[in-house]
């Protein structure tokens, strides 16, 4: 296992080192007096569609190349965001008086020296054949084809000491996404065949699996990511789960072929960063508590081109959340609340909620001082009058009090028609478990997510600034701000739900 430590370019480090002193010097200037009253009105007028659109085009355009977590593109975008925050005038609340909280993510992937072949067909790992987990593994064995692997087909074949090829088949239950079902069936079927003596298993995509192969294949090419010490970053020495494209069916069933596999793994660290800022509260006691506004700045970066476009901009996912938080900062700067407003841009969300997992474990404010988390995730697409508030129904609701405040803010402001289907435990996408509110909710901190949910351009190069509904995004921002403003000014913190327990 090769361990390497990659650090940002010297010029980027120089830029980061300058940001904190600039912010610190800004804090030394005499501040305008703040009217310390609990009856002050909100600053909703400070949230402007023109500001949101400008910021989103800057962050979600091609300049930052999709802001892939753990790359210089993510770090450059993070520096840009910190500069916008400094210009707005919020205090740095990261490490060592800066806006930044650095952390490492660990990447484990197959080396370029890894090789696979079936007969005369040379297969590039994670290009011509998907390997679902990096593994050190070598085998040279005869390949037998068993169709879809039914009981009657398997009865005709002795798989002991052989590699087995079969076509994936099956349909998930209503409450499971096909991608998750595909992974589960491949894992369970492989284990069953290995127990029968097979030394390797190769699946061939059917029509539905082919759609997963085409849409998500670039994920496996990059390997696995986690925080150092995570179970999924550990190098294993077991037979891989492999998936071939649908086009392989014609030749994979030819008799007399050998499967040759020689996979090798490397693992190394990348830097990523959370961006943290604060608008102190006005109340002598309540300012010690924080309402945390959450989002993430990363997306998928530069990947396989689709219709000639290789930049996965992530305009909705999640430049919308980034622009929304900047707008909310302007409102809190214009009119501070009784509690402090804390803003956290989480790095490497697309790698597995890594930034929010890190910050929730090592917050730069006392953990017990965080009274609520309001998370912005994809807020600018789909029907102009519909939205969703995840964490609003059981078993995901961990504070009826916070949810009631958010619902009241919706009625008083944008008045969206709320879609509760995406928040149900039975929803096949499991959307509640896929954004940065989750690590905080697992700690019992009242948390909700504001979203306009998935769409056809999700995680494709078509998710671009020109496709965002800016009036809707502005209304989503207003809703999030009005909720946070109410929580930040009430005397009692949102009550936590007794007996809260997530289904997984």
Automatic annotation (TrEMBL):
The keyword Disulfide bond appears for this protein: no
Residue ranges of every copy of the Peptidase M28 domain listed in the record: 274-479
**GO BP, one example?**
proteolysis
Per the UniProt entry, the signal peptide is 1-19
Keyword entries, A-Z:
Signal
- What's an example of a GO molecular-function annotation for this chain? metalloexopeptidase activity
Domain of life of the organism encoding this protein? Bacteria
Which parts form a coiled-coil structure per UniProt?
none
State the protein's name: Peptidase M28
**What is the native source organism of this protein?**
Hymenobacter glacialis
């Amino acid at each position: 296992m090769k361990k390497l430590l990659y650090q940002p370019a010297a010029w980027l480090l120089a830029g980061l080192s300058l940001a904190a002193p600039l912010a610190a010097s800004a804090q030394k200037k005499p501040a305008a007096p703040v009217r310390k009253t609990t009856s002050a009105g909100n600053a909703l007028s400070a949230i402007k569609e023109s500001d949101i659109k400008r910021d989103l085009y800057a962050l979600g355009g091609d300049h930052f190349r999709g802001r892939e977590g753990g790359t210089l593109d993510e770090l450059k975008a993070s520096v840009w965001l910190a500069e916008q925050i400094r210009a707005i005038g919020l205090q740095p609340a990261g490490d060592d008086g800066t806006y930044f909280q650095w952390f490492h993510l660990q990447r484990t992937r197959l080396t370029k020296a890894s090789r696979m072949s079936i007969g005369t067909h040379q297969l590039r790992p994670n290009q011509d054949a998907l390997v679902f987990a990096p593994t050190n593994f070598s085998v040279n064995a005869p390949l037998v084809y068993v169709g879809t692997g039914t009981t009657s087909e398997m009865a005709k074949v002795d798989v002991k000491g052989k590699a087995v090829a079969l076509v994936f088949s099956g349909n998930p239950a209503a409450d499971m996404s096909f991608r998750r079902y595909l992974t589960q069936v491949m894992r369970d079927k492989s284990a069953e065949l290995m127990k029968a003596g097979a030394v390797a298993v190769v699946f061939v995509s059917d029509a539905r699996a082919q759609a997963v192969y085409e849409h998500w294949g670039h994920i496996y090419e990059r390997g696995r990511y986690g925080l150092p010490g995570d179970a999924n970053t550990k190098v294993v020495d077991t037979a891989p789960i492999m998936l071939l494209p649908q086009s392989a069916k014609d030749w994979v069933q030819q008799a007399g072929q050998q499967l040759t596999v020689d996979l090798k793994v490397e693992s190394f660290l990348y830097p990523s960063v959370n961006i943290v800022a604060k608008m102190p509260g006005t109340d002598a006691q309540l300012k010690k508590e924080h309402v945390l506004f959450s989002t993430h700045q990363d997306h998928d970066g530069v990947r396989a081109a689709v219709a000639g476009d290789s930049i996965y901009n992530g305009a909705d996912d999640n430049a919308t959340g980034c622009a929304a938080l900047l707008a909310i900062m302007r409102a809190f700067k214009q009119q501070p609340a009784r509690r402090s407003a804390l803003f956290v841009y989480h790095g490497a969300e697309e790698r597995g909620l890594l930034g929010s997992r890190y910050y929730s474990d090592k917050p730069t404010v006392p953990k017990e001082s965080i009274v609520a988390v309001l998370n912005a995730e994809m807020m600018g697409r789909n029907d102009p009058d519909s939205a969703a508030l995840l964490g609003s129904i059981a078993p995901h609701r961990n504070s009826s009090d916070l949810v009631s405040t958010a619902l009241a803010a919706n009625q008083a402001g944008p008045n969206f028609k709320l879609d509760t289907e995406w928040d149900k435990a039975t929803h096949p996408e499991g959307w509640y478990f896929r954004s940065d509110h989750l690590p905080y909710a697992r700690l019992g901190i009242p948390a909700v997510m504001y979203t306009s949910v998935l769409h056809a351009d999700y995680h494709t190069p078509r998710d671009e600034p020109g496709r965002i509904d800016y009036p809707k995004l502005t209304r989503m921002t207003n809703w999030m701000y009005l909720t946070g403003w109410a929580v930040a000014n009430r005397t009692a913190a949102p009550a936590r739900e007794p007996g809260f327990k997530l289904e997984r």
